[in-house]
Write a structure and sequence with these properties.
Blueprint: H1 3-18, H2 24-33, E1 36-39, H3 72-84, E2 90-95, H4 117-126, E3 130-133, H5 152-176, E4 180-184, E5 189-190, H6 197-212, E6 219-224, E7 235-236, H7 240-250, E8 253-257, H8 269-275, E9 281-285, E10 287-289, E11 291-295, H9 301-312, E12 319-323, H10 332-351, H11 355-363, H12 367-377, H13 382-392, H14 400-411
Parallel strand pairs: 1-2, 1-12, 2-3, 3-4, 4-6, 6-8, 8-9, 9-12
Antiparallel strand pairs: 5-7, 10-11
């Protein structure tokens, strides 16, 4: 795209927003500094490097588009290429099954920092900080219950696994000089009628208490709720109501995955309530169709509302942003770039709202004026601001990234 035209369009947009008291340069600066954590599992359909077994434990990847990453080097190469197409600040989010195991089997209660040292070194070399996740699914001891399992041998196995993962996250945070955010999601539940719900939830709470009792200064733990998992449709131990109470009483970060609720629920509406009781939020941005189908994030009302609510609540400093979908039906690199750019666009639109005026209208019971301004904002030239954000940071503008991804597919992923 013509650089001169991009700048001219931005100058016009800047004046238009300035008339409403909005500083577009400030919005761009905030967007540049707000990290988005890229989920490594989009590169390879959540396979990891522990074994070649498929997914189990309430989740499933659909599609078989060619070019899946098969090795650590391929995953890293894909992530580096994705990052080259993006403006702003990106992190990388790892699951435990992506350790550098050197071709050896390392069971999950034996994993340690050494298995992620090469990731720490790589992240430093590409200037991308790391986040982390424990991995309870896809293992012979996963079954239907892990941290909530009544069998102490199995439960303690997963407690030990999660403790070790927190120590790995702490080492990552120390090495990068910035806290590593470690998410804990377990698939625990039952397929059919359950008669011991309270017992399972008591066990999960006790397991988490033990896991989180170790003070680790260079990481932050968060826990993730879910409506149900595939094959575990009747009962989920770690439901939203369970984790609402747990996070509020233990002061733990709550993870809001936009695909883990009823399809008609407005996840954005949960933000303000949770922020009253929990220290911070972790956002897993996805797109559910019918349910948690993990489609690529697009700019829809749900995603826009989520980021507008974060900004309207003055809570951007209390929210960590990550992506969480695994679409194997289309070009995986394209899926990354679409989802990240959409997330940036939604945050930018939130940052470009004339909040002072809107709040004044609301306080003065000026409903007509508030609604009118909100509607007029929808047609303001935010796209020109986003184009300039990319130009300023040396990233592709508009649809330019499509051709670059097609070339990468021709030269790299298409040969796998």
């Amino acid at each position: 795209m013509n650089e001169k035209h991009i700048i001219q369009s931005y100058d016009i947009a800047r004046e238009r927003y300035a008339a409403l008291g909005i500083d577009t340069d400030k919005a761009i600066a905030i967007l540049e500094q707000t990290p988005i954590s890229l989920h490594c599992w989009q590169t390879d359909d959540v396979m990891g490097f522990e074994s070649n077994a498929g997914l189990s434990g309430g989740i499933q990847t659909t599609g078989n588009y060619p070019g899946r990453a098969r090795t650590i080097d391929e995953v890293r190469h894909d992530l580096e290429f994705v990052n080259s197409l993006l403006a702003g600040t990106q992190r990388v989010n790892l699951h435990e099954i992506y350790g550098d195991f050197g071709g050896r089997f390392v069971d999950r209660d034996q994993v340690s920092v050494e298995h992620f040292q090469s990731w720490i070194d790589w992240a430093k070399s590409v200037k991308m900080n790391l986040d982390f996740n424990s991995t309870s699914f896809g293992h012979p001891k996963s079954g239907d219950l892990s941290l909530a399992n009544p069998d102490p041998e199995i439960r303690n196995f997963w407690i030990e696994h999660t403790k070790r993962c927190r120590r790995i996250a702490d080492a990552m945070g120390k090495a990068q000089g910035d806290p590593c955010i470690m998410n804990i999601w377990v698939h625990d539940g039952q397929k059919d009628i359950t008669v011991q719900r309270k017992r399972y939830r008591e066990l999960l709470a006790a397991s988490l208490d033990e896991i989180l009792s170790e003070e680790l200064p260079n990481m932050k733990s968060c826990v993730e709720a879910k409506l149900f998992g595939i094959g575990l449709e009747s009962f989920t131990v770690g439901s939203m109501d369970f984790y609402e109470g747990y996070c509020a009483t233990r002061k733990v970060i709550y993870t809001l995955d936009t695909g883990h609720y009823e399809p008609t629920e407005n996840v954005a509406d949960k933000v303000s309530s949770l922020l009253l009781y929990v220290p911070e939020l972790m956002l897993h941005v996805s797109r559910p169709i019918r349910w948690d189908s993990d489609h690529v994030t697009i700019m829809n009302d749900q995603t826009l509302d989520l980021f507008k609510e974060i900004v309207r609540a003055d809570a951007l400093h209390r929210a960590h942003i990550g992506l969480d979908y695994f679409d194997a039906s289309i070009n995986r690199i394209g899926a990354y770039v679409i989802g990240t750019r959409v997330t940036q666009k939604c945050l930018l639109q939130a940052l470009l709202e004339p909040l002072d005026t809107l709040r004044r209208y609301e306080a003065g019971c000026q409903g007509f004026e508030k609604l009118a301004l909100l509607e007029e904002m929808k047609s303001l030239p935010f796209g020109a601001v986003y184009d300039y954000f990319n130009l300023k940071n040396g990233a592709p503008v508009g649809e330019e990234y499509i051709g670059r991804i097609q070339q990468y597919e021709k030269e790299v992923t298409g040969k796998r």
